[in-house]
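Hi F.,

I've been meaning to write this up properly since the lab meeting, where we talked about keeping a consistent format for the predictions we share between groups. The idea is simple: the sequence comes first, exactly as it goes in, then the structure tokens exactly as they come out, then a line or two of notes. No screenshots and no reformatting. I'm using this chain as the first example so we have something concrete to point to.
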Amino acid sequence: MSPAEFAELLRERDGFLILSHRNPDGDTLGSGAALCHALRRMEKTAFICNNPQITERTDAYIHDYYAPDDFRPDTIMAVDIATPGLFPKGFEGHVDLCVDHHPTNSFYADETLVVSEKSACGEIVLEIIEALCGDVDPVEATLLYIALTTDTGCFQYMNTNADTMNCAARLISLGADHHKVVHDFFRRVSKARVMLEGMIYSGMKFYRDGKLTVAFVTRKMLHDAGTTENDLDDLAGLPGRIAGNMLSILIREQENGDSKVSVRSTPEVDSSKICAKFGGGGHAMASGCTLHCDPFEAERQLLKAVEEVWPA
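Output, unedited:
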């Protein structure tokens, strides 16, 4: 399916509820909100599912799109969600449409558009909106710029390529507020975030002469640093900053005792194969999964999986 064919499916439908994934990032939310805005321009009824894990930083851009409690959708569309296990908390049900860029998408929806070579789902949504509306307005451009920059670490991650930069330039030319997005998402952090980063770095573990790093975020660390969810964006990139690193793992303890795992790697290691052993997935160089155990048991299991996927 092409973006133009996906746009045709949108023309045929109405009453949209747009889903973002658990622990939502700027790509799932920015892409979903941009689609919602475009559908409204086409005089469609469209809302975003009020994901309870949305942080204040992103809420400032998307709060006008939340669905009212009594909304009953005719079409449920998932954006940037690879598997049903990543549906937002509180949602259970059938999904009609899905647009995604994860090669591990399980094709759970009735109709699915996956373009795995894109750095961010926002790049695909840009093409959908152009096919749907004939243009992209500044509001949509800004939302898609959030999607693009957050999924590439403001163009620092290894998924960034020439097409990514061309897309960024195009969105700015269409009216994306580059300076505000960069200021809001990348230039300012709280004191609590700085304190937490210090704890993460001081507790980091190194294996294989630094080629493999493991970092932890426990509930006690979050409490001691005084963090909120607004302080926890993009923690996964921290352990991979060490010179010589090829594979980094960040393990975050959840309120229910589970461990949420984010794996990042260079092209030599396929992180998605590691996460797939625990029912997760993602991209070859950026993947995630959840283990039903404490962080230190999760580390033991993950190191074993690493040996199987990437023998020393």
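Notes:
The radius of gyration is 19 Å.
The chain has two domains: 3-186, 191-309.

If this format works for you, I'll send the rest the same way.

G.
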